[in-house]
Write a structure and sequence with these properties.
There is one protein chain. This protein is α+β, with helices and mostly antiparallel strands. The protein contains 29 helices and 23 strands. A hairpin with a 2-residue loop joins β15 and β16. About 0% of the residues have low confidence.
Length: about 950
């Protein structure tokens, strides 16, 4: 083996790197365990503890030190289905932005175009601006779009003689600006919400959508209100630090007296709290309960104090105390800066309220932009105001020359520039040490007062912590059982070589988790299924190699030569098989979302790590064993001649298998035409709830209870709900699906439906629940334990992406196989077999969804299962095709029929072994993996069986018939 030393060094370096990456998860786990012990069930207390630890060093490696916050960024990132939380897709109301730009024009053509664009969006993947442009073009009747948008605010951007295309460009720029600002506003709101490791990102495939993940949130209704609230832009005059310093000193002294007057129990509790969260200054928290955490300034700056992020909540509590608030001017209002500095320190500002309000609100701003200053590398923000705003702005700036005016959004300060002189005409520039990005962000903030860009929830999923913990337990149980079963299977079947394969499998698992962490991938429950499936498929490479080595040994060659030629002959089949599976994984990643992407990520990484371990790690171990004259056995007396010497004429019996496959396809077509499919909300739109009861319950009982409220939906359709038993042996859990008002994105719709569920189902509980206990997923193990909503436009997008995912994967596989085997007939045979497998799997879901005791829903996970089946089946097919290609090369005088039969017979041990290990793995997940992925695993189990069948009895025979006809024509 060449480059043995380099490969050994690479394996060692990879092991060290993976161990380093995984070590952060152990560190954060230790800190979180301490937090749980300290909080004793108090979620707010636990969050405060963890937040205070973010800047503390918890991992010391000598010269390199990591804080808890840095460790969090490097730990294993669990998906919401494993740790509970809320996943939300929001869509910015671009229609409202366009209305605002037109100053609520009443032009009938304009209004009709908005309606047409809104309706078209329900069944289109195009963004709203594009659909509006198409609608206007259709309705315009010669009218120019510029006449609608020739407003005072847009007079510098849109001229009366501009073409419709140029006007649309301006509208697109303005809407993008509004979306960027909404994204920033949402980011800052989430940062303040008290969630550990939130995630927010723009979805680039569709303008205006934002994905938000909030692990462990307690109150879903509060999140909905927070995310969908309108931004509040204001301009405040400020106090200086010098004006407030003495008040802070008095407040500190008064708070100390208040604490001293409390009971001894309260004092002890306060003392216990202060030992956990260390003071920000050198002051004693007992003597200086305020100034120990807040560092007041004494200059003429608008920043009156500084505090660590962990201390802001404590300071707010003190400053809101009526006895403390009375020590400050009555018109004073405190606000924090929106972002901390590099040392995680927040700035505190003191506003001057005018009759309880700001000096000016955001409706006065007509436009703003961020640009570089002339002859300067720093950026500035230009701002213009409407006529009323310009007058008010002139008065404010005249009265505050040399003072500061704070610009706030949602009661957080974004900037506090000093006034150099009176500003007339409404045009101002804000300068400072801005980067161009910061200047543009501030400009977007300023424009948020003018542009109404509300964000609406179009898709959401809520998973309670109890269900999340159950998913972790189920996933880990299935994982452990499947892992042990595979190890036992390999050792029993392949003896010493099986032990080596087990070592490679352990290394593969270690590398896989290490790479998952280093890439920042999210581990979901389907992701765990992907890892377990990867284990089953990783065995395939070892099986291919071992079967080739056994063939060489049976031909009389020595061990060293057999090892070398066995590996050499197996490479092409292993690489081709894994590349085709990799193609499906990449398609899944590109077109999937959420859990499907998690599954695709683990599948892709697992394929790469299993290739490395199967080809190189096992080879290194064998080379070392041979150099030490160790005995290596590739079988035992029971498995030595397993399926060897087969002489089945598979090609001859293809007519019978064609009839069998055709019959199954016809049955599937009949089922689809008569029974249809059980479409999940991913494809049909709607809401799904998993509700847990405190006693055994039947679906009919729940159905009868719901009928009064849900019998007719908002579109006057009957039977707009579905009830089915969901998991749990004790039959205490139901899955409820409804399309009631699912097209309505209003803020109060979710609350209304939750109330309807509570009113309908509360009588079915032995121990009565309050509505809050029933609907709050994160504080109660009963009631709604998970909820999901998919809007109509999202459902359409998912359907389109699913179609393209399947189609593109088939096309890519066809091209790859046709190229690799230099015959399009191989590609056709492979793709027909894949279409056969996919359709029969769909047919089985159609036939049995009404009778199976588990959920057979057509959703995103089902599409992931179809593409996984495609990857598995083509891997099986490619191994057979590879042996056919080898036989044709070695025995050119034999007929194609003989070469094909010999190839199928020779690869039968590998086919049965790989299918067997994969089925054992899937069976373990199916039994122990939990209800959430049972339907997904059922699809995979059926796919493995039908994929093995099609590789032998569909792909190879169709390729044979096509090749035979082609050669006859050539002759």
């Amino acid at each position: 083996m060449q480059n043995k030393g380099a490969l050994t060094l690479l394996a060692v370096l990879l092991a060290i790197a993976c161990a380093f990456q995984l070590s952060f998860s152990f560190v954060t786990s230790h800190v979180e365990k301490n937090a749980t012990e300290y909080a004793q069930g108090d979620y707010d207390k636990e969050y405060t503890y963890l937040d205070s630890m973010k800047s503390e060093v918890v991992y010391n490696l000598g010269m390199i030190k990591y804080t808890y916050g840095e460790c969090l960024e490097r730990e294993i990132n669990l998906g919401l289905d494993l740790r509970g939380g809320m996943n939300v897709t929001m869509e910015i109301a671009v229609e409202d932005v366009i209305r605002s730009l037109s100053e609520d024009s009443k032009d009938p053509i304009f209004l009709q175009s908005l309606v047409d664009a809104r309706n078209a969006q329900q069944s289109s993947t195009e963004d709203y601006v594009t659909l509006f442009a198409e609608a206007w073009k259709h309705n315009a009747q010669g009218n120019k779009l510029a006449t609608v948008f020739s407003t005072v605010e847009l007079r510098d951007k849109i001229k009366p003689d501009m073409s419709d295309e140029d006007v649309i460009k301006v509208i697109r720029q303005e809407t993008e600006s509004a979306i960027d600002n909404s994204f920033n506003v949402l980011s800052n709101r989430i940062d303040r919400f008290g969630v550990v490791q939130p995630n927010i990102q723009r979805l680039e495939n569709r303008t205006g959508r934002i994905l938000i993940e909030l692990p462990g949130v307690k109150d879903a209704e509060r999140v909905r209100k927070l995310l969908q609230g309108t931004a509040n832009l204001e301009f405040w005059t400020t106090y200086t630090a010098a004006e407030t310093y003495q008040s802070f000193v008095l407040a500190d002294d008064q708070m100390a007296k208040i604490n001293a007057a409390n009971s001894s129990d309260s004092v002890q509790q306060a003392s216990a709290d202060t030992t956990v969260v260390a003071a920000a200054t050198q002051a004693d928290p007992k003597k200086n309960p305020l100034l120990a955490y807040l560092m007041p300034d004494q200059s003429n700056s608008p920043v009156v104090g500084y505090a660590r992020a962990a201390d802001t909540s404590r300071i707010n509590t003190i400053l809101n105390n009526p006895q403390i608030a009375s020590l400050f001017p009555r018109d004073l209002k405190f606000m924090w800066g929106v972002k901390p500095n590099a040392q995680n320190i927040f700035e505190l500002y003191a506003m001057k309220a005018i009759k309880g309000k700001a000096a000016l609100d955001g409706s006065a701003v007509s436009d703003a932009s961020g640009n570089y200053q002339q002859n300067n590398s720093t950026a500035e923000v230009s701002m213009s105001m409407n006529a009323d705003g310009a007058k008010a702005w002139a008065n404010i700036t005249r009265d505050n020359i040399g003072k500061y005016i704070a610009i706030t959004l949602d009661n957080y300060v974004y900037s506090a520039p000093v006034v150099r002189g009176e500003i007339t005409g409404g045009n101002s520039s804000i300068s400072g040490n801005f980067t161009i990005t910061e200047a543009k962000d501030l400009a977007n903030v300023l424009k948020s007062g003018k542009l109404r860009a509300p964000a609406r929830i179009v898709q959401e999923s809520v998973v309670g912590p109890s269900l999340g913990q159950e998913s972790i337990n189920a996933g880990m149980t299935s994982f452990a059982i499947a892992f042990v079963l595979v190890l036992i299977y390999m050792i029993l079947f392949y003896h010493t070589a099986g032990l080596v394969a087990s070592v490679a499998l352990i290394c593969n698992l270690f590398f896989l988790f290490g790479f998952l962490v280093s890439f920042g991938a999210v581990l979901t429950l389907p992701g765990i299924a992907g890892i377990v499936l990867t284990m089953g498929m990783a065995v395939d490479s070892n099986v291919i190699i071992y079967e080739r080595i056994k063939e060489e040994l049976r031909s009389g060659k020595g061990l060293t030569l057999s090892l070398r030629e066995g590996y050499s002959n197996a490479y092409s089949a292993i690489i081709d098989g894994n590349v085709t599976t990799l193609i499906t994984g990449i398609v899944l990643f590109v077109f999937g979302s959420g859990p499907v992407q998690g599954f695709a990520t683990t599948l892709i990484i697992g394929i790469l790590t299993s290739l490395f371990c199967a080809i190189f790690i096992t080879r290194l171990v064998f080379e070392r064993m041979v150099s030490r004259n160790r005995h290596i056995f590739f079988s035992n007396r029971f498995t030595e001649n397993f399926l060897t010497g087969l002489h089945i004429d598979f090609v001859e019996i293809r007519k019978y298998t064609y009839v069998l496959s055709s019959s199954l396809v016809v049955i599937g077509i009949i089922s689809l035409c008569t029974l249809g499919l059980n479409k999940g909300v991913d494809f049909s739109g709607g809401r799904t709830f998993v509700v847990r009861f405190d006693k055994t319950i039947t679906a009919n009982e729940v159905r009868d209870a719901l009928r009064e409220n849900f019998a007719v939906d908002a579109d006057k359709r009957e039977n707009s709900f579905e009830v089915k038993q969901y998991g749990t042996v004790d039959q205490k859990q139901m899955k409820i699906t409804t399309q009631y008002r699912y097209k309505d994105d209003g803020e109060d719709v979710a609350k209304e439906i939750n109330t309807m569920l509570y009113n309908s189902l509360s009588s079915l509980y032995e121990n009565k629940l309050t509505e809050e206990e029933f609907t709050t997923t994160n504080t109660n193990p009963l009631g709604i334990v998970s909820a999901e909503k998919v809007g109509a436009s999202i459902a359409h997008d998912i359907t389109v992406h699913a179609f393209w995912a399947v189609l593109l994967s088939l096309i890519a596989i066809f091209i790859y196989i046709a190229f690799r085997f230099k015959n399009w007939q191989y590609g056709l045979g492979g793709v027909v077999a894949l279409m056969h497998d996919s359709f029969l799997t769909i047919g089985v879901f159609s036939l049995f969804y009404a009778v199976m005791p588990f959920d057979l829903t057509i959703d995103q996970s089902f599409i992931a299962a179809i593409l996984t089946i495609v990857g598995y089946s083509i891997n099986d097919t490619v191994v057979i095709f590879d042996r056919i290609r080898e036989n044709v090369s070695l025995y050119p005088k034999r007929s194609i029929k003989d070469n094909m039969n010999a190839a199928i017979n020779a690869t039968m041990p590998r086919t049965i072994n790989t299918s067997g290990t994969t089925l054992v793995v899937l069976l373990a997940i199916f039994i122990f993996g939990g209800e959430v992925i049972r339907g997904f695993i059922f699809a995979l189990m059926f796919g493995v069986i039908i994929g093995t069948f099609s590789s032998v009895f569909v792909a190879a025979p169709i390729t044979f018939d096509c090749l035979r006809k082609f050669w006859k024509k050539s002759e």
